[in-house]
Amino acid sequence: MAQPIKVHLTPPGPNPWKVVLVLQELGVPYEYHSFPFAEVKNKPYTDINPNGRVPAIEDPNTGVKIWETGAIILYLIEQYDTDHKISFPDLTNRSLCNQFLFFQVSGQGPYFGQAGWFNVLHSEKLQSAMDRYNAEVQRILGVLEGLLSGKQWLVGDKMTYADLSFVTWNDRIDSLTMCAPDKKFVGFPGVQAWHERMTGRDAWKKCMEDRDRLMDEQGLQSNGMPKGVNSMEEYEALIKAHNEAEAAKKAGK
């Protein structure tokens, strides 16, 4: 039996749950190191990921420590999906899965993230920025709709890590673009059906139960900010105060 892989994460964001979802689908043991967002750019976490982003993993079975979700997912597939449960053995289909994974990490994730920033978190409402990134959300959904035409999955005849890599960000479209939950896939029925196939799975339900629990442990709202904090400015001030208190504590030792 493999030792559990340690997943370092702050629970609000979509990216860590891509990795957890893959682990859950593969049945690979894992454990959480869940910590506050205020600590993501501080030691000791930056000794693991100097970029100060989540997630990162540590695999005690191999000694590998790695960050960036695309790299983590490729590592997990190579190391732990030898039976090709959510991958393929042949070069063509493997390359197609990687193509879609890189489309997710370079296209969907960054553009959806910027939509969330300018629609929800940015202190100034910049209509041009909101319009640009909302349009990019629609464009990417359109690309996916075309790719899924006549198909259930992106590659071959089964769900793979290519499909799983998109689900966490797609699930947040309503909160990122401030639309009604039942309107986030309007005009993209193929994407909606594909998304629902994945979110109906036990692995997804387990991940979201864990996320809710970890969020509650940190006293966080659904938008990731602490309860009682109503704007990004308040949250940034809270983070600054936390970091100053930690620095003062270390200086006093």
TrEMBL record:
Pfam families recorded: GST_C, GST_N_2
Root EC class: transferase
EC number: 2.5.1.18
Residues that span the membrane, as ranges: none
Positions of the GST N-terminal domain: 3-84
Domain of life, per lineage: Eukaryota
Catalytic activity: RX + glutathione = an S-substituted glutathione + a halide anion + H(+)
Keywords tagged on the record: Transferase
Entries under InterPro entries matching the protein: Glutathione-S-Trfase_C-like, Glutathione-S-Trfase_C_sf, Glutathione_S-Trfase, Glutathione_S-Trfase_N, GST_C, Thioredoxin-like_sf
GO molecular function: glutathione transferase activity
PROSITE patterns listed in its UniProt record: GST_CTER, GST_NTER
Residues annotated as domain GST C-terminal: 90-218
Family: Belongs to the GST superfamily.
Entry protein name: glutathione transferase
